């Protein structure tokens, strides 16, 4: 199977959001790498700078008003290999956890909302903080704010989940997330203060998103609705006709909402399966149900 066929297969599935986010970031990086090489070789390097202005997030308000789409495009744009490498590795590791327990749509919601929160804090800091106003106009690229949102969301969701780190050993992800936040805070006094501030915006969004979800409020609903509208527009699908019906009464003791609780009998069956075959024998749906039950 060719590379193009693999890419097409990645986007043909609806339950493949993590891989789709990874592929989009990598494709943008590769295309920019090739375009930069061609334009530089042909002596048209200025055209590459014009292209980057269409993708990078400007820190000045006039520039943002001229390029409002950069509030999102910056989060899929990288120019350095190590930058995209570490971002994609973190997105894969922590995004897998979010996707496994909350599903594809909420992973995308966290990524998009994290990017927007990081962009908002980045622009506000350059326009309100005197120390940064002298550098007003510096643009930002990279998925770091969105990835930080996924890291903190995963740590808020499953604080005691353990990763085995090279040369360190098993570490609970709440400590990894805390280290990421502390490094960003320390980096505000460094060479890239705006980027570190954007990381903090993503971290705050990841924490608030999970806390609100646990209280029954899904902040990502507008993102999901916008995604469905764009998908229907691209694929020419007819809009669903909504019919209003009287809601049926829910069974006694049941809960509705983003984290509705499964029945106790079902949880007992899952726990029995864990004792018999181990946690890894659970399906994705069973792991989600077990997590939901832990929120009681």
TrEMBL record:
Q: What is its main location?
A: membrane
- Record domain DUF6576: where: 263-295
Q: Please list every transmembrane segment annotated in the UniProt record, as residue ranges.
A: 21-51, 71-95, 107-128, 134-158, 165-188
Signal peptide region: none
Q: Which residues form the Peptidase S54 rhomboid domain?
A: 67-210
Indicate the segments annotated as coiled coil, or none if absent: none
Q: Where is this region: Disordered?
A: 242-263
Tell me the domain of life. Bacteria
The keyword Kinase is assigned to this record: no
GO BP:
proteolysis
The UniProt entry lists membrane topology as: Multi-pass membrane protein
Q: Name one GO molecular function term.
A: serine-type endopeptidase activity
Q: Where in the cell is it found?
A: Membrane
Alphabetized, the UniProt keywords read: Hydrolase, Membrane, Protease, Transmembrane, Transmembrane helix
Q: May I have one GO cellular component term?
A: membrane
Q: Which family does it belong to?
A: Belongs to the peptidase S54 family.
| Name of the protein this chain belongs to | Rhomboid family intramembrane serine protease
